[in-house]
Amino acid sequence: MSTDTVSPLRQRMIEDMNSRKLGPHSQRSHISSCKRLAAFLKRSPETTTREDIRLFQLHLAETAMSISNRNRIMTGVRFLFRVTLRRLDLAAEIYHLREPQKIPQVRLLAVANSLRTRVLLSLTYGCGLRAGEVVRLKVKHIDSAQKIIRVEQSKGRKDRNVMLSPETRDLLRQWWKERPSHGDAGTPLQERWLFPSRKSGKGAGKPMTTRQLSRLFHEAADAAGIRKSVTLHALRHSFATHLLERGTDIRIIQALLGHDKLDTTARYTRVATGMISNIESPLDLLLNPGKKPRRSRKDPPPA
Fold first, then answer.
1. pTM strictly above 0.90
2. What does DSSP say about strands 148-151 and 160-163: parallel, antiparallel, or unpaired?
Protein backbone atom coordinates (compact mmCIF):
# COMPACT_ATOMS: atom_id res chain seq x y z
CA MET A 1 0.00 0.00 0.00
CA SER A 2 2.65 2.45 -1.07
CA THR A 3 0.76 4.80 -3.42
CA ASP A 4 -1.23 7.89 -2.51
CA THR A 5 -4.49 6.37 -3.80
CA VAL A 6 -4.14 3.55 -1.30
CA SER A 7 -3.52 5.71 1.78
CA PRO A 8 -7.25 6.10 2.57
CA LEU A 9 -7.60 2.33 2.27
CA ARG A 10 -4.82 1.79 4.77
CA GLN A 11 -6.46 4.25 7.15
CA ARG A 12 -9.78 2.38 6.89
CA MET A 13 -8.01 -0.88 7.57
CA ILE A 14 -6.26 0.56 10.63
CA GLU A 15 -9.60 1.81 11.94
CA ASP A 16 -11.11 -1.65 11.39
CA MET A 17 -8.24 -3.28 13.26
CA ASN A 18 -8.51 -0.79 16.12
CA SER A 19 -12.25 -1.33 16.46
CA ARG A 20 -11.60 -5.06 16.76
CA LYS A 21 -8.85 -4.43 19.34
CA LEU A 22 -6.08 -6.09 17.35
CA GLY A 23 -2.71 -5.65 19.05
CA PRO A 24 0.16 -3.57 17.59
CA HIS A 25 2.04 -6.67 16.43
CA SER A 26 -0.99 -8.03 14.52
CA GLN A 27 -1.66 -4.62 12.98
CA ARG A 28 1.91 -4.24 11.74
CA SER A 29 1.82 -7.75 10.33
CA HIS A 30 -1.49 -7.19 8.50
CA ILE A 31 -0.34 -3.86 7.02
CA SER A 32 2.95 -5.41 5.90
CA SER A 33 1.09 -8.29 4.25
CA CYS A 34 -1.17 -5.93 2.29
CA LYS A 35 1.81 -3.81 1.21
CA ARG A 36 3.37 -7.00 -0.13
CA LEU A 37 0.21 -7.73 -2.13
CA ALA A 38 0.17 -4.16 -3.51
CA ALA A 39 3.82 -4.50 -4.54
CA PHE A 40 3.02 -7.75 -6.35
CA LEU A 41 0.00 -6.25 -8.13
CA LYS A 42 1.72 -2.90 -8.79
CA ARG A 43 -1.64 -1.26 -8.15
CA SER A 44 -4.19 -0.78 -5.40
CA PRO A 45 -5.49 -3.94 -3.70
CA GLU A 46 -8.99 -2.50 -4.23
CA THR A 47 -8.68 -3.64 -7.87
CA THR A 48 -7.78 -7.24 -6.97
CA THR A 49 -9.46 -10.06 -8.90
CA ARG A 50 -9.82 -13.74 -8.10
CA GLU A 51 -7.07 -14.49 -10.60
CA ASP A 52 -4.81 -12.00 -8.81
CA ILE A 53 -5.35 -13.87 -5.53
CA ARG A 54 -4.52 -17.17 -7.22
CA LEU A 55 -1.34 -15.78 -8.80
CA PHE A 56 -0.24 -14.10 -5.55
CA GLN A 57 -0.55 -17.34 -3.60
CA LEU A 58 1.29 -19.16 -6.38
CA HIS A 59 4.01 -16.51 -6.18
CA LEU A 60 4.41 -17.07 -2.43
CA ALA A 61 4.54 -20.84 -2.96
CA GLU A 62 7.44 -20.44 -5.40
CA THR A 63 9.57 -18.55 -2.89
CA ALA A 64 11.67 -20.12 -0.15
CA MET A 65 9.29 -18.67 2.44
CA SER A 66 8.16 -20.91 5.30
CA ILE A 67 4.59 -22.14 5.57
CA SER A 68 4.04 -20.09 8.72
CA ASN A 69 5.08 -16.86 6.97
CA ARG A 70 2.88 -17.63 3.96
CA ASN A 71 -0.07 -18.21 6.28
CA ARG A 72 0.71 -15.01 8.17
CA ILE A 73 0.70 -12.96 4.97
CA MET A 74 -2.57 -14.43 3.74
CA THR A 75 -4.18 -13.82 7.15
CA GLY A 76 -3.50 -10.09 6.75
CA VAL A 77 -4.74 -10.11 3.15
CA ARG A 78 -7.90 -11.94 4.15
CA PHE A 79 -8.62 -9.32 6.83
CA LEU A 80 -8.39 -6.63 4.16
CA PHE A 81 -10.88 -8.34 1.85
CA ARG A 82 -13.21 -9.79 4.46
CA VAL A 83 -13.45 -6.82 6.82
CA THR A 84 -12.29 -3.59 5.19
CA LEU A 85 -13.31 -4.13 1.56
CA ARG A 86 -16.25 -6.45 2.31
CA ARG A 87 -15.18 -8.66 -0.59
CA LEU A 88 -16.17 -12.04 0.79
CA ASP A 89 -15.81 -13.57 -2.67
CA LEU A 90 -12.10 -12.75 -2.67
CA ALA A 91 -11.61 -13.75 0.96
CA ALA A 92 -13.05 -17.17 0.06
CA GLU A 93 -10.25 -17.66 -2.48
CA ILE A 94 -7.58 -17.50 0.24
CA TYR A 95 -6.34 -20.78 1.67
CA HIS A 96 -3.98 -21.62 4.52
CA LEU A 97 -1.55 -24.50 4.67
CA ARG A 98 -1.41 -26.81 7.63
CA GLU A 99 1.91 -26.95 9.44
CA PRO A 100 2.63 -30.56 10.43
CA GLN A 101 5.03 -29.94 13.30
CA LYS A 102 5.42 -32.89 15.59
CA ILE A 103 7.95 -32.46 18.33
CA PRO A 104 9.31 -35.14 20.68
CA GLN A 105 8.46 -33.10 23.77
CA VAL A 106 9.98 -35.51 26.29
CA ARG A 107 13.35 -35.45 24.50
CA LEU A 108 13.19 -31.68 24.09
CA LEU A 109 12.62 -31.09 27.81
CA ALA A 110 15.20 -33.70 28.81
CA VAL A 111 18.02 -31.97 26.91
CA ALA A 112 17.21 -28.48 28.20
CA ASN A 113 20.60 -27.27 29.44
CA SER A 114 19.26 -25.21 32.34
CA LEU A 115 16.41 -25.24 34.82
CA ARG A 116 15.18 -21.93 33.37
CA THR A 117 14.86 -23.41 29.87
CA ARG A 118 13.10 -26.51 31.19
CA VAL A 119 10.57 -24.41 33.14
CA LEU A 120 9.93 -22.08 30.19
CA LEU A 121 9.34 -24.91 27.72
CA SER A 122 7.26 -26.84 30.26
CA LEU A 123 4.93 -23.85 30.64
CA THR A 124 4.65 -23.45 26.86
CA TYR A 125 3.77 -27.10 26.25
CA GLY A 126 2.15 -28.03 29.57
CA CYS A 127 -0.18 -25.00 29.70
CA GLY A 128 -0.49 -24.09 26.02
CA LEU A 129 0.87 -20.59 26.60
CA ARG A 130 2.07 -18.21 23.92
CA ALA A 131 5.65 -16.95 24.16
CA GLY A 132 4.50 -13.48 25.22
CA GLU A 133 2.28 -14.97 27.91
CA VAL A 134 5.12 -17.01 29.39
CA VAL A 135 7.61 -14.16 29.70
CA ARG A 136 5.01 -11.82 31.26
CA LEU A 137 4.12 -14.14 34.13
CA LYS A 138 4.39 -12.66 37.62
CA VAL A 139 4.23 -14.20 41.08
CA LYS A 140 0.62 -13.05 41.47
CA HIS A 141 -0.43 -15.12 38.45
CA ILE A 142 0.43 -18.44 40.13
CA ASP A 143 -2.40 -19.73 42.32
CA SER A 144 -1.18 -22.94 43.94
CA ALA A 145 -4.28 -23.24 46.12
CA GLN A 146 -6.68 -23.35 43.17
CA LYS A 147 -4.10 -25.05 40.92
CA ILE A 148 -4.39 -22.46 38.15
CA ILE A 149 -2.22 -19.93 36.35
CA ARG A 150 -3.87 -16.62 35.56
CA VAL A 151 -3.06 -15.21 32.09
CA GLU A 152 -3.83 -11.49 32.04
CA GLN A 153 -4.43 -9.20 29.06
CA SER A 154 -3.24 -11.65 26.44
CA LYS A 155 -4.06 -11.61 22.72
CA GLY A 156 -7.28 -9.69 22.22
CA ARG A 157 -6.79 -8.11 25.69
CA LYS A 158 -8.45 -11.07 27.37
CA ASP A 159 -7.85 -12.83 30.68
CA ARG A 160 -8.10 -16.58 31.15
CA ASN A 161 -7.06 -19.40 33.47
CA VAL A 162 -4.99 -22.46 32.62
CA MET A 163 -4.16 -25.49 34.71
CA LEU A 164 -1.24 -25.62 37.14
CA SER A 165 -0.13 -29.24 37.30
CA PRO A 166 1.86 -30.63 40.26
CA GLU A 167 4.86 -31.10 37.95
CA THR A 168 4.73 -27.49 36.76
CA ARG A 169 4.25 -26.22 40.33
CA ASP A 170 7.31 -28.16 41.52
CA LEU A 171 9.41 -26.82 38.63
CA LEU A 172 8.36 -23.26 39.45
CA ARG A 173 9.31 -23.74 43.08
CA GLN A 174 12.74 -25.03 42.08
CA TRP A 175 13.16 -22.11 39.69
CA TRP A 176 12.21 -19.54 42.35
CA LYS A 177 15.20 -20.66 44.42
CA GLU A 178 17.58 -20.05 41.50
CA ARG A 179 15.83 -17.07 39.92
CA PRO A 180 18.02 -13.92 39.71
CA SER A 181 16.74 -11.24 42.06
CA HIS A 182 18.98 -8.24 41.27
CA GLY A 183 16.07 -6.33 39.72
CA ASP A 184 13.59 -6.91 42.55
CA ALA A 185 14.53 -3.91 44.66
CA GLY A 186 11.44 -1.85 45.45
CA THR A 187 9.07 -4.28 43.69
CA PRO A 188 6.38 -5.98 45.83
CA LEU A 189 6.62 -9.77 45.87
CA GLN A 190 3.38 -10.32 43.96
CA GLU A 191 4.50 -7.98 41.15
CA ARG A 192 7.87 -9.62 40.51
CA TRP A 193 8.52 -11.25 37.14
CA LEU A 194 8.99 -15.02 37.19
CA PHE A 195 11.54 -14.72 34.39
CA PRO A 196 13.31 -11.38 34.81
CA SER A 197 15.85 -10.08 32.35
CA ARG A 198 19.42 -10.84 33.31
CA LYS A 199 20.51 -7.38 32.20
CA SER A 200 21.57 -4.78 34.72
CA GLY A 201 21.13 -1.03 34.51
CA LYS A 202 18.25 0.00 32.23
CA GLY A 203 17.36 -3.64 31.57
CA ALA A 204 16.92 -4.45 35.24
CA GLY A 205 13.39 -4.90 36.48
CA LYS A 206 12.05 -6.01 33.10
CA PRO A 207 11.00 -9.49 31.95
CA MET A 208 13.03 -11.55 29.50
CA THR A 209 12.05 -11.08 25.86
CA THR A 210 10.23 -13.47 23.55
CA ARG A 211 13.32 -13.41 21.33
CA GLN A 212 15.37 -14.82 24.20
CA LEU A 213 12.77 -17.51 24.81
CA SER A 214 12.75 -18.46 21.13
CA ARG A 215 16.55 -18.71 21.16
CA LEU A 216 16.46 -21.06 24.15
CA PHE A 217 13.87 -23.22 22.37
CA HIS A 218 16.01 -23.56 19.25
CA GLU A 219 19.07 -24.41 21.33
CA ALA A 220 17.09 -27.21 22.98
CA ALA A 221 15.75 -28.39 19.60
CA ASP A 222 19.30 -28.56 18.21
CA ALA A 223 20.49 -30.48 21.27
CA ALA A 224 17.56 -32.91 20.86
CA GLY A 225 18.58 -33.57 17.26
CA ILE A 226 15.43 -32.02 15.78
CA ARG A 227 16.61 -31.07 12.30
CA LYS A 228 13.38 -29.97 10.67
CA SER A 229 12.20 -26.40 10.89
CA VAL A 230 10.07 -26.01 14.00
CA THR A 231 8.96 -23.03 16.02
CA LEU A 232 8.24 -22.44 19.68
CA HIS A 233 4.54 -22.05 18.81
CA ALA A 234 4.49 -25.74 17.80
CA LEU A 235 4.56 -26.61 21.52
CA ARG A 236 1.25 -24.79 21.95
CA HIS A 237 -0.15 -26.70 18.97
CA SER A 238 1.02 -29.97 20.53
CA PHE A 239 -0.68 -29.04 23.81
CA ALA A 240 -4.04 -28.68 22.03
CA THR A 241 -3.63 -31.74 19.82
CA HIS A 242 -2.66 -34.02 22.70
CA LEU A 243 -5.58 -32.84 24.83
CA LEU A 244 -7.96 -33.53 21.97
CA GLU A 245 -6.53 -37.00 21.40
CA ARG A 246 -7.10 -37.78 25.07
CA GLY A 247 -10.77 -36.93 24.70
CA THR A 248 -10.86 -33.39 26.13
CA ASP A 249 -13.90 -31.44 24.93
CA ILE A 250 -12.92 -29.00 22.20
CA ARG A 251 -14.74 -26.16 24.00
CA ILE A 252 -12.50 -26.66 27.02
CA ILE A 253 -9.46 -26.56 24.74
CA GLN A 254 -10.86 -23.36 23.21
CA ALA A 255 -11.03 -21.75 26.65
CA LEU A 256 -7.53 -22.93 27.61
CA LEU A 257 -6.04 -21.52 24.41
CA GLY A 258 -7.95 -18.25 24.69
CA HIS A 259 -9.55 -18.50 21.25
CA ASP A 260 -12.50 -16.22 20.51
CA LYS A 261 -13.98 -18.53 17.89
CA LEU A 262 -14.38 -22.27 17.93
CA ASP A 263 -13.34 -22.28 14.26
CA THR A 264 -9.81 -21.34 15.32
CA THR A 265 -9.60 -24.30 17.69
CA ALA A 266 -11.20 -26.64 15.14
CA ARG A 267 -7.88 -26.98 13.30
CA TYR A 268 -6.97 -29.57 15.93
CA THR A 269 -9.91 -31.81 15.00
CA ARG A 270 -7.76 -33.49 12.38
CA VAL A 271 -6.99 -36.25 14.86
CA ALA A 272 -4.89 -39.37 14.56
CA THR A 273 -6.16 -42.23 12.41
CA GLY A 274 -5.97 -44.63 15.35
CA MET A 275 -8.28 -42.43 17.38
CA ILE A 276 -10.85 -42.41 14.57
CA SER A 277 -10.65 -46.14 13.90
CA ASN A 278 -11.48 -46.91 17.54
CA ILE A 279 -14.80 -45.06 17.40
CA GLU A 280 -17.75 -47.41 17.21
CA SER A 281 -20.30 -46.60 14.52
CA PRO A 282 -23.95 -46.19 15.64
CA LEU A 283 -24.80 -48.54 12.75
CA ASP A 284 -23.22 -51.43 14.68
CA LEU A 285 -25.55 -50.80 17.60
CA LEU A 286 -28.54 -50.45 15.28
CA LEU A 287 -27.89 -53.82 13.64
CA ASN A 288 -26.95 -55.47 16.94
CA PRO A 289 -29.45 -54.08 19.46
CA GLY A 290 -28.33 -56.47 22.20
CA LYS A 291 -24.71 -55.37 21.94
CA LYS A 292 -23.36 -53.07 24.63
CA PRO A 293 -21.45 -49.98 23.47
CA ARG A 294 -17.71 -50.48 23.59
CA ARG A 295 -16.14 -48.40 26.32
CA SER A 296 -12.98 -46.54 25.48
CA ARG A 297 -9.89 -47.63 27.37
CA LYS A 298 -9.55 -44.04 28.52
CA ASP A 299 -13.09 -43.86 29.92
CA PRO A 300 -13.20 -44.04 33.72
CA PRO A 301 -14.57 -47.28 35.22
CA PRO A 302 -18.18 -47.19 36.37
CA ALA A 303 -18.69 -46.12 39.98
1. no
2. antiparallel
H or E element that contains 271: none
Q: For residue 260, what is the DSSP state?
A: S
Active site residues: 130, 155, 233, 236, 259, 268
DSSP assignment of 170-220:
HHHHHHHHHS--TT-TT--GGG-BSSB----GGGTTSBPPHHHHHHHHHHH
Q: What angle do CA 6, 12, 16 make, to 5 degrees?
A: 140
Phi first, then psi: give them for residue 129, nearest 5 degrees.
-85, 150
Measured distance CA(294)–CA(137) in Å, rounded = 44
Contact in structure between 140 and 191 (CB atoms under 8 Å)? yes
Rounded to 5°, angle at Cα 47 from 42 and 51: 85
Helix (H/G/I), strand (E/B), else coil: 116: helix
How many of the other CB atoms lie within 10 Å of CB of 218?
Answer: 13
163: helix, strand or coil: strand
Write out the chain's pLDDT in tens, 303 residues.
Answer: 544 444 789 999 999 999 998 888 889 999 999 999 999 999 999 999 999 999 999 999 888 787 778 889 999 999 999 999 999 999 999 988 776 555 566 678 888 889 999 999 999 988 989 999 999 999 999 999 999 999 988 776 788 999 999 999 999 999 999 998 888 888 999 999 999 988 766 656 789 999 999 999 989 888 888 766 778 888 888 888 888 777 788 888 888 888 877 777 766 655 444 444 555 556 665 656 665 555 544 444 333
Cβ pair 201, 190 in contact under 8 A? no
**Secondary structure letter of residue 185 according to DSSP:** T
